[in-house]
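> example.struct
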């Protein structure tokens, strides 16, 4: 975590870098039913520049939410970069390596 924090502290104000975070989660209500969702947030030069929450309902799994969050994060990041040509690097952070691998293949 210290390494990540150090890296982000250096990158967060760099005018060519957009930082994007994504995560998916599940919440259970009284162990009877569950809801799954994800969220993304983007930071540019130390400011939040976009965020989005996605509800995936009760039939999705957490892995679905991780993928949805990553794809949404990539889409939002690319859209932001098109509008801001000074952005040359997009750093996308997530906590599910297999979802990252699948999502990155969608944009190759």
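> example.seq
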């Amino acid at each position: 975590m210290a390494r990540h924090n150090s890296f982000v502290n250096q990158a967060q104000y760099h005018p060519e870098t957009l930082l994007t975070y994504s995560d998916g989660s599940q919440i259970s209500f009284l162990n009877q039913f569950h809801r799954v969702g994800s969220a993304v947030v983007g930071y540019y030069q130390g400011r939040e520049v976009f965020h989005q929450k996605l509800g995936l309902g009760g039939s999705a799994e957490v892995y679905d939410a991780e993928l949805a969050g990553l794809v949404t994060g990539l889409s939002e990041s690319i859209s932001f970069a098109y509008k801001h040509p000074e952005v040359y690097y997009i750093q996308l952070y997530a906590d599910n390596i297999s979802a990252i691998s699948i999502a990155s293949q969608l944009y190759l």
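> remarks
The chain has a mean pLDDT of 86.
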